[in-house]
Specification:
This protein is of the alpha+beta class. It has one domain: Transcriptional coactivator/pterin dehydratase (Gyrase A, domain 2, 2-Layer Sandwich). Helices cover about 40% and strands about 20% of the residues. It contains 4 helices and 4 strands; from the N terminus they run αββααββα. It has helices spanning about 10-15, 40-45, 50-55, 80-95; strands at about 25, 30-35, 60-65, 65-70. It has a 4-stranded antiparallel sheet with strand order 1-2-4-3, covered by helices on one side. β1 and β2 (about 30-35) form a beta hairpin. The chain is globular and about 40 Å long. About 20% of the residues are buried. The structure holds ligand H2B. Ligand H2B binds near residues 56, 57, 58, 75 and 76.
Length: about 100
């Protein structure tokens, strides 16, 4: 398998303009979403399965009561790639 290509800082900054809910922290981007309660938070996490499996690109997920923190990074590349940006946009579309 070819190693995915890391985005440059300039490419990343440009693409994050379209993803204002996401914050970059080093080699990851993160979005926090708050729900009415734990069932809604867990239900949302199950909705991430389809895009993640379709892309074979999987978010790191932290659920705490009604809050879901989603962290994206391309582990195979050791940083952020186009797959992270694409998945972030797909997650935004699910949040609505
Ligand atoms: N998800 C994420 N976030 N980063 C990866 O590098 C990654 C992945 N690699 N999901 C995929 C699976 C790879 O291990 C398989 C073989 O496609």
């Amino acid at each position: 398998m070819t190693r995915p290509t890391l985005l440059t800082d300039a490419e990343l900054e440009a693409r994050l303009i379209a993803l204002p809910a996401w914050r970059r922290t080093g080699n990851t981007i993160t979005r926090t979403i708050t729900f009415a309660g734990f069932p809604e938070a867990v239900a949302f996490v199950t909705r991430l399965v389809e895009p993640a499996e379709a892309m074979q690109h999987h978010p790191d997920i932290d659920v705490r009561y009604n809050r879901v923190v989603i962290t994206l990074s391309t582990h195979d590349a050791g940083g952020l790639t186009a797959s992270d940006v694409t998945l972030a946009a797909r997650i935004d579309a699910l949040v609505g």
